[in-house]
Amino acid sequence: MFKNYFKIAMRNLWRDKTYTLINIIGLSIGIAAMVWAFQDYRFSFSWDNFQPDRDHVYRALTFKEGADKVKGIFPMPLIAAAQNDFPGIDQILLWVYNRSPIIDTLNCCNHKHWSRKY
Fold first, then answer.
1. What is the pLDDT of residues 75-97, one digit of tens each?
2. How many Å apart are CA 101 and CA 103, to the nearest integer?
3. Which of 14, 60, 90, 101 is deepest in the core (most CB within 10 A)?
4. Spatial separation of the C-alpha atoms in residues 109 and 38, rounded to whole Å
5. Are 11 and 3 in contact (CB under 8 A)?
6. Cβ contact 20:13 at 8 Å
7. How far is residue 108 from each of residues 1, 21, 48, measured CA to CA in Å?
8. Is residue 29 pLDDT above 60, yes or no?
9. What gap in Å lies between CA 94 and CA 82, rounded to an integer?
């Protein structure tokens, strides 16, 4: 019975070659898009999973008036203000990207440290 179904399906596919080609291309693009979307989703939510206290790691972002999106920029003077206003902050990590990434841990917001030229 399945052999007959398979024969009929192959005859119909062979008879309508253009329609078959369009369907196969559409299915392959759809499957590729779903695989890409799944990989992108998985990659987006895999950040900081190696941290032992990943529930306590936060990223500060700013919203500029007139802008469409939230920017990944946090002004340096606000670092000291955030550490004074929110007592739960233990450490602050400053990520400066100027041709080569530089990562510094600021424990008490040393302003001399900021003025150093990288």
1. 777 877 888 888 888 877 777 66
2. 7
3. 60
4. 40
5. no
6. yes
7. 77, 65, 24
8. yes
9. 13
- Tokens 């739960």 belong to 88
User: Is pLDDT of 55 > 60?
Assistant: yes
Residues sharing a CB contact under 8 Å with residue 21, sequence separation 6 or more, in sequence order: none
Does the pLDDT value for residue 111 go beyond 70? no
The length of the chain, given as a count of residues: 118
CA 99, distance to chain mean position in Å, is 21
How far is it, in rounded angstroms, from Cα 99 to Cα 115? 18
State the Cα–Cα distance between residues 118 and 102, nearest whole angstrom.
8
Give the pLDDT confidence score for residue 88 in this predicted structure: 81
Q: Is 79 helix (H, G, I), strand (E, B) or coil?
A: helix
Give bridge partners of residue 62 from the DSSP assignment. 71
- Read off the pTM: 0.48
Average pLDDT of the chain to the nearest whole number: 78
CA–CA gap between residue 97 and residue 118 (Å, rounded): 10
What does the block give as tokens for 19? 């329609």
